[in-house]
Design brief:
193 residues; alpha/beta; seven-stranded mixed beta sheet; two-stranded antiparallel ribbon; 4 helices; 17% strand; binds zinc ion
Length: 193
C-alpha cells in the first residue's frame, strides 16, 4: 500500500519548514490538480521562494510538488495539507510546479510576455507519472487546470502602467496539454464564470 502522503518512487521528500502550519484536509476532498511553472531560473531559486514566510500563520506560497527539467520530483508539502499556490482553489487542489523560466525576470513587462522555454520530455514524463499516482491516491481527483486559467487578473505592466498584463501566465502556451490529457479520464476544469 502506497503512503498516501508521499508517493514512494520517485519523489524526494523535502518538506518545507512550515508545513505544520498549513491546514490539514481529507484526501477525498481533492478533485483538482493545478499545473504551474516556476517562472524562475532553477529549482534552488524556487525553493528559496517557497520557504519565504508570507502569512501571519507562518506559512508561505508553494506547490505540493516541484519537477525539475531532468524529471526529478521533489515533494514540498504533503497532499493532506492545503498549500498556497492558487487564489480561490487551494482547499480542493494539489499544486504541481514545473521548473521553467517563463517570463523571468521580466514577469510583468509588456514587451516580455512570451514564454520561450520548452518543457523537456523528461519533465513531462515525470509529471505524467506523478499524475497517474495521484489519481490512484486521491479518489475524487478528476480535474486538471493551468494556473493561468484560474487566475485571470490583469495588472499594470511594469514598463508601462497604462498597459495591462496577465498576473499569472503559467504554465503557458508551451505546455503540452494534449499529451498530458491523453493519459486518462482527466477533465479540464471549467473556469468559473
Ligand atoms: Zn502558478
Amino acid at each position: 500500500m502506497a503512503d498516501p502522503i508521499f508517493p514512494v518512487p520517485p519523489v524526494r521528500q523535502l518538506p518545507l519548514p512550515y508545513i505544520e502550519r498549513l491546514l490539514t484536509r481529507d484526501i477525498a476532498s481533492i478533485d483538482l490538480v493545478v499545473i504551474h511553472c516556476t517562472e524562475l531560473p532553477d529549482l534552488a531559486t524556487a525553493r528559496s521562494y517557497g520557504e519565504q514566510v508570507r502569512y501571519d500563520s507562518g506559512a508561505g506560497n508553494s506547490g505540493h510538488y516541484y519537477i525539475d527539467r531532468d524529471g526529478s520530483i521533489d515533494g514540498y508539502v504533503p497532499i493532506d495539507r492545503i498549500a498556497h499556490h492558487v487564489r480561490g482553489y487551494n482547499p480542493r487542489s494539489i499544486g504541481i510546479e514545473l521548473v521553467n523560466l517563463g517570463r523571468y525576470p521580466h514577469w510583468w513587462d509588456s514587451r516580455h510576455q512570451t514564454m520561450h522555454e520548452p518543457y523537456p520530455p523528461a519533465q513531462i514524463a515525470a509529471l505524467r507519472q506523478l499524475l497517474a499516482w495521484l489519481k490512484r491516491a486521491c479518489p475524487s481527483l478528476r480535474y486538471l487546470a493551468g494556473h493561468e486559467e484560474l487566475d485571470r487578473e490583469r495588472i499594470p505592466a511594469s514598463d508601462d502602467p497604462t498597459a495591462l498584463v496577465q498576473r499569472k501566465l503559467d504554465p503557458g502556451l508551451r505546455f503540452p496539454w494534449p499529451q498530458v490529457l491523453s493519459d486518462g479520464d482527466w477533465q479540464r476544469l471549467p473556469p468559473a464564470a
